[in-house]
Each structure stands twice: as C-alpha cells, then as structure tokens.
Design a protein that fits this description.
Length: 266
C-alpha cells in the first residue's frame, strides 16, 4: 500500500547549519502521527518541507505517491511550476501556531474564500459547507463574527475549519496550541481529537505530550534533525529508550497535561 505521506532521507540546512539530517518517515492513510521533540529539533522545518513552503536539499517527500514540489525527469528532480505546486498544496491542510485569519473577513468568509476562489464552489454551496464546519468546531453561532471578536482558541478553530474546507487528504498541525493561553488549549485539542477519529490522516507537531499519547497512533520523537524514536504510544510510555528518557526528563508540561486531560474529558 502506498503511504499517504512518505518522507525519504530528507536533508535541509540553513546557511550551512543542518536542521534536518536524513529524516525518513511514512504515514499511512488514516493514521494520526504526533511529532514531539525539544525546541530546535527540526519539527517545524519538517512540516514546512512537507508543504513545500521550503524546498529540501536532498531526499524526497511524497503525498499519495506523488512527489511534493518536484517532478522526476530521468534521474533528476526538477521543481514544479507554481500553478502545479498550488494544486498539490490544496491536498495538504495546514494549521499553524498563528492562525493568520483575514481580519477584514468574517469567520464564514475566511472559510469560504478558498473553496470559492480555488475550488470554484458557488457561494451557496461554500457557505453551507462552511456552516457545517463551523458547527463541527463548536462555532456554529459565530459565522458573522470577525477574528478580532474571537478568542485565540476560537480563531484557531476557525483556522482548522478553513483548512478542512479544502478537503485535504493530509492535515498538518504545527504546534496549534502554542500561542494560546492555557485555558484555551483544551477547546482546540478537543477539536483535533474529534478530527483524529474521523479517519483523516494527520501529522501533529505538539508540545502537549499527554494529548499526543492520547490521540496518536504513533509517536515520533525528533532530536537534532532526525527521527530518533517512532512507536505506538503504549510503547512510548514504557520504553527505556535513551532519547525518550532524555526528552521526557525535560518535559515540564505535566500540570498543563493534567489540566488538558481534564479539559478533554469535560
Ligand atoms: N528560515 C530559517 N533560517 C535559518 N535557520 C532556521 C530557519 N528556520 C529554522 N531555523 C533553525 O532550524 C532549527 C530548527 O528549527 P525548527 O523551527 O524546525 O525547530 P522545532 O523543532 O520546530 O522547534 P520549536 O519546538 O522551538 O518550534 C533551529 O535551530 C532554527 O533556528
């Protein structure tokens, strides 16, 4: 079976400093993979490379068997044209730390913009779907609300609905709760957890270890630009692997994790 996402021997450096050093990672259809790792491990860079917001220096990234950002001609890879890249990116939903909603558009219009302009949906169809998505993220009453009138957690939930409106095959979350006040983290994690159960393929970079252990099919630990551990949560909890032990000894979010767990079970 072709992996939904296949990262093969990816390398990336900035100004001669290696940030990704031979990263290989496969994610199957419907899997939820949570990526953990200390600050600077290369997690965000990997997500940016998967979405081809950054070109890789070596290696390949494929989504459903199709190379992202490149095409193969003979033995060589050539960067694809912008229009083709935009078409590829449509299949990859991205939710980042900062929500980047359009401030002059309502929640509804933020969500319908892509489907209308890029997918060519009519206003009625796009709005009906956007309303369903707003309800799905618990914001059914906020269609006409502008981002400045929403809390950070609510804005992030609109950003998730906006990504889903493009019907992505793969969802990437890059620290979706890191910019939020602690009391707003739970509402966003609840939405992501519900999504995880819908069967959509997801890669979630997070510092919320407790959450990762709860929702992930696999926990991937990165350190110094490589994947140093990759296993189901059950194994992660009990492993004596030195990388995991070293990482967990620096995890300070245990109180936050407890409150997250409480928020999740509300
Ligand atoms: N555009 C860039 N130019 C130069 N260096 C960069 C750039 N982007 C990232 N880096 C460097 O690459 C390293 C990895 O950064 P990255 O953001 O991928 O780590 P991370 O694991 O996501 O960390 P965090 O958990 O703090 O977000 C860091 O040392 C960072 O300073």
């Amino acid at each position: 079976m072709t992996a939904m996402l296949s990262v093969q021997h990816v390398k990336k450096a900035y100004g001669g400093v290696s940030v990704l050093r031979d990263v290989t990672l496969d994610v199957d259809q419907g899997q939820v993979v949570c990526v953990l790792g200390s600050s600077g491990a290369g997690k965000s860079t990997l997500m940016r490379c998967v979405a081809h917001l950054e070109p890789v220096d070596a290696g390949t990234i494929s989504v459903e068997g199709q190379l992202v950002g490149y095409e193969r001609r003979g033995n060589h890879l050539h960067e694809i044209r912008e229009a083709e890249l935009c078409r590829q990116r449509r299949g990859i939903g991205m939710v980042f730390q900062h929500f980047n909603l359009f401030g002059h558009l309502t929640a509804l219009d933020n969500i319908t913009l892509g489907p209308r302009k890029v997918l060519g949906l009519g206003r009625g169809e796009a709005e009906a779907e956007a309303r369903d998505l707003l309800a799905q993220v618990g914001l059914g009453d906020h269609a006409a609300t502008y981002p400045r009138q929403l809390s950070g957690g609510q804005q992030q939930r609109v950003a998730i609905a906006r990504a889903l409106a493009m019907h992505p095959r793969l969802m990437l979350f890059d620290e979706p709760t890191s910019a939020l006040d602690p009391q707003l983290v739970g509402e966003v994690l609840r939405v992501i957890r519900a999504l995880a159960h819908t069967g959509i393929t997801m890669v979630v970079v997070t510092h919320e270890v407790h959450f990762a252990l709860e929702v992930a099919d696999r926990i991937v630990l990165m350190a110094d630009g490589t994947v140093v551990y990759d296993a189901p949560p059950s194994q992660f909890r009990s492993t004596t692997d030195e990388h995991v032990t070293a990482f967990m000894s620096h995890v300070t979010d245990v109180p936050a994790a407890v409150s997250t767990a409480e928020a999740l079970t509300e």
